[in-house]
Amino acid sequence: MWNEIKSNISSALVYFREFILFLILVILIIFLLIEKLSLSIPLILLLLVAGIIILNLIGRRRIKEIDEIKSIISSIRQSKYQSSDEIVLTKHLSALENEIKEMFEKAKSDIEYLERLQRMRSQFLGNVSHELRTPIFSIQGYLETLLNGAIDDPKVNKHFLQKANQNTVNLSNLLNDLIDISMIESGEMRMSYRYFDINIFIQSIVQEFISMAGAKNIKLFFNPAKEGLQVFGDKDKIRQVFVNLLQNAIKYTDEGSIEIWLDEEKKYANISVKDTGIGIPEEDLNRVFERFYRVDKARSRAVGGTGLGLAIVKHIIEAHNSKIIVQSKQGEGSTFSFKLKK
Ligand code: ADP
Asked: Could you tell which of 130, 220, 245, 252 is best to mutate to test the pocket of ligand 1, judged by most ligand atoms within 8 Å of the CB?
């Protein structure tokens, strides 16, 4: 009991200064009002005893509150709560209860975010390993077959070498895209914005792709906007967007045409790349911008796709404060469009 009283009083000693001030004040009043020393001394002693009892009560209350808070914090640390509603403190600590609840919610959402990030990272690593394995195994297979004698067979040797070579091209495309995506996602992609003539810019890219489209008998058209139209953007990155969209349009179109439309709006230039290719099924439309998502894996790989092109396009366009939109109908073709600031 004495020990309890001692610890109660020592806990209440944080209010020691206030207590002493109060005592001095009351003693002064007693001295002023009661002149007789024989009366005032017992009164002061009584006051001291009452003071010690009050200090004991205050201390006991304080220890109880601290224990309550300690137990809540320790339960949070041991992950005993599922939701903040389970955190309950006595009524007069309600302000603190709200603060603890907010802290709990914040910590919970931070942990969930980190766990999601960790899952995404492992998934990405799994995808990367899988994507690397495919061309490496193919190259290994072709080379081993050649070494085991096929090299002397004029019917297959050139074909196997071509296949191995195509796989090294795929591997190098994949590594380049991986470097791009990791630069973008780590925030290391430096953007360099300036105004440039979008008609001249698209015209030069179209020239580069005419022969690639022609090789598949696909016509490539450009419908320019008014002469001299300037847009604001990173020229190199926008070039990468066009290269990806045009390569895809050619890869996934067997016959017909590809059209690039440039339309001037009040504050923006609207750019669309439209093809008459295989199109994208409705259920895949939202997913084609995800890393490594392909509608038809085999076809994508066969034409040297990495599954990262549209994810890179999306990042670049979003860095321009814009959005890439896709419209498509299976069997009829696809249109990818975005706006650039004038
Ligand atoms: P990939 O390297 O596989 O082409 P992308 O990220 O560029 O990867 O595209 C993701 C997927 O979206 C492709 O695998 C393909 O299924 C689909 N896709 C992209 N562009 C087109 C298009 N123009 N026509 C039809 N499908 C397309």
From this structure: 252
Model confidence over 268-323: pLDDT tens digits?
Answer: 999 999 999 999 999 999 999 999 999 998 888 888 889 999 999 999 999 999 99
Range of the domain at 152: 123-186
Domain-terminating residue out of 45, 80, 115? 80
Token pair in block for residue 5: 């009283």
**Within this chain, do residues 230 and 334 fall inside the same structural domain, yes or no?**
yes
Looking at the domain assignment, is residue 176 inside a domain? yes
Asked if residue 16 has pLDDT above 90, the reply is: no
Bridge-based pairing state of the strands 230-233 and 218-223: unpaired
Cβ atoms 334, 327 nearer than 8 A: yes
Residue 204 lies in a domain: yes
At residue 20, the pLDDT reads 86
Atom of ligand 1 nearest to the CA of 311: 6
Does the C-beta of 290 come closer than 6 Å to ligand 1?
Answer: no
Residue 101 lies in a domain: no
Listed residues 151, 170, 186: the one ending a domain:
186
Q: What are phi and psi of 327, to 5 degrees?
A: -125, 135
- Does residue 334 line the site of ligand 1, with CB under 6 A? yes
Ligand 1 lined by 250 (C-beta under 6 Å): no
Which atom of ligand 1 is found nearest the CA of 289? 6
